[in-house]
Write a structure and sequence with these properties.
Elements lengths: L4 E3 L10 E10 L3 H12 L4 E5 L27 H11 L10 H17 L12 E4 L5 E4 L8 H8 L3 E6 L7 H8 L6 E6 L11 H7 L3 H15 L4 E5 L7 H12 L2 E5 L6 H16 L3 E4 L5 E5 L2 E8 L2 E12 L10 E2 L4 E2 L54 E3 L9 H4 L2 H19 L3
Parallel strand pairs: 2-3, 2-13, 3-10, 6-7, 6-8, 8-9, 13-16
Antiparallel strand pairs: 1-2, 4-5, 11-12, 12-13, 14-15
The structure holds flavin-adenine dinucleotide.
The site of flavin-adenine dinucleotide has 35 residues, from α1, β3 and α11.
């Protein structure tokens, strides 16, 4: 793999232009952008990427593939079977454009990468898991962090378990979780603890998570959990078991306490998403990827030789020259789409956006309408090679690809398929970019 070349000015003074040259540029540092980087590394492509925080910090950490079919009242049990149905009923859905074998390959590569970096995930199985949400409801998902894996299994078995929360922690209540789960899990109780070292006041999950990386804090926590568990041998906690390498924090706490432990996601922004972001920000540069963090691409110019991306930071302008580009800029929350007064735009290239004919069509009358809202299916349209289509119905540019929830014809929130769409489409976009680059 040729590493990206970075040309620095002679003296790194503010306001001087820097140029980065790579084979592939990725715009966006959400799950789609990071997954694209993982797949491109596998292809030995040199990679430069840019993006800011976006929706990643909000995720539960679960990797959903397909949890609910459009219009269906019940959760999907076997997402692979449901995909076959989706291909018949919604052939334009991004997941319908990806072969099952490619989706399986993409999940395996992505979760293997995370596992190597100390954030193991359960392997994608034949059935969805029913995993806990921050408020104690359950949702279908395909793969969960290993730190959360014991929860669905204990719930399915109905084993006695204590859910603990902490004084001063907002965004997670053991009482609420137990109240909502008790019907399906009668052997559940709750306890509130003082976080080790806390002197009262608000407890911030991110700080609590980082403090649990200190062995002495884990010792104290293990003792408190043992007492809170009483006769139960399992304890669920809000997701704050370490920021880096949480697998080791979990292992150590289980060893010290003698309990089976599992995390439950807290209200966003929360530790599981920050973990993912920090993991990629640390691990990808170690493998040769150039990341321009916390910056958005301001201009993207494409011609027959490649693409030029322009962005800037406190030290001045940065140009990225690449032979192919993947656009993975998300929807409204991350800035990949913009809602104007009467229309929805894609701001970087002004790509055509599939959308309702007018603002009055964006939403149904009732917020809870089971059909969902048309605005949640807007996005850019791609062909089977994941190239965005221009106004004439042909690929906008042969070197441009797109991935993630910026894609049209899917409502990832209702279908519980956020990470699945991101990972599957990123895999296909990289396959096609690699083909273009002769790999
Ligand atoms: C509250 C919440 C809960 C969620 N829970 C789950 C869950 O339980 N399971 C699940 O599977 N998914 C979940 N998701 C979805 C998941 O976090 C991702 O949003 C989804 O996978 C789509 O990822 P994406 O990379 O396509 O888009 P995003 O995550 O939106 O990322 C887009 C990226 O593009 C960047 N960007 C935008 N414009 C530019 C530009 N001009 N230049 C450079 N970068 C740019 C943004 O900064 C951001 O980094 C949740 C999301 C939210 C908001």
């Amino acid at each position: 793999m040729m590493p990206p070349t970075i040309t620095l000015p002679e003296a790194s003074m503010p306001e001087e232009a820097r140029t980065i040259t790579s084979e592939l540029a990725i715009i966006g540092t959400g799950i789609a952008g990071f997954a694209a980087a993982v797949f491109a590394l596998e292809r030995k492509l040199s990679i430069a990427m840019a993006g800011s925080t976006g929706a990643l910090a909000y995720t539960t950490g679960y990797l959903d593939l397909l949890g609910r079919m459009p219009g269906a009242a019940h959760a999907v049990d076997d997402p692979w079977l449901a995909l076959a149905e989706l291909r018949r009923s919604e052939p334009e859905h991004p997941l319908s454009l990806v072969a099952t074998a490619d989706i399986e390959r993409a999940f395996t590569l992505f979760t293997d990468f995370l596992g190597q970096e100390g954030l193991a995930y359960t392997p994608a199985g034949r059935s969805n898991l029913m995993a806990m949400t921050p408020v104690g409801t359950v949702k279908p998902t395909l793969s969960v962090p290993a730190t959360m894996a014991a929860g669905p299994a204990l719930m399915a078995a109905g084993s006695p378990c204590v859910i603990v929360d902490f004084h001063g922690l907002k965004g997670f209540s053991g009482r609420q979780a137990v109240a909502n789960l008790r019907q399906r899990w009668p052997e559940l109780s709750t306890a509130r603890l003082a976080f080790p070292g806390s002197r009262g006041g608000e407890l911030y999950p991110e700080i609590a998570a980082r403090s649990l990386q200190v062995p002495e804090v884990r010792q104290q926590m293990a003792e408190m959990l043992r007492q809170a568990a009483g006769p139960a041998s399992a304890v669920g906690l809000p997701a704050l078991l370490g920021m880096h390498r949480p697998d080791l924090v979990l292992q150590d706490l289980q060893r010290l306490s003698g309990l089976t432990l599992f995390e439950i996601p807290t209200m966003p922004p929360a530790v599981p998403g920050i973990r993912l972001r920090e993991l990629f920000a640390r691990a990808l540069p170690q493998r040769g990827v150039t990341i321009i963090p916390q910056q958005k691409v301001q201009r993207l110019h494409l011609d027959e030789n490649g693409a030029c991306l322009t962005l800037g930071d406190n030290y001045g302008t940065i140009s990225i020259h690449a032979e192919a580009v993947i656009l993975a800029t998300g929807r409204f929350l991350s800035g990949g789409l913009e809602a104007r007064r009467d229309t929805i735009r894609e701001p970087l290239l002004d790509l055509p956006v599939a959308q309702p004919s007018g603002r009055s069509q964006w939403y149904e009358e009732r917020y809870t309408d089971p059909r969902g809202h048309a605005i949640h299916r807007t996005g850019i349209v791609v062909d089977r090679t994941f190239r965005p289509l221009g106004g004439d119905g042909h690929p906008f540019h042969p070197r441009l690809f797109a991935a993630g929830i910026i894609l049209a014809h899917q409502d990832w929130i209702r279908s519980r398929s956020g990470a699945g769409i991101a990972i599957a489409s990123a895999c296909r976009a990289v396959d096609e970019a690699a083909r273009l680059l002769g790999r």
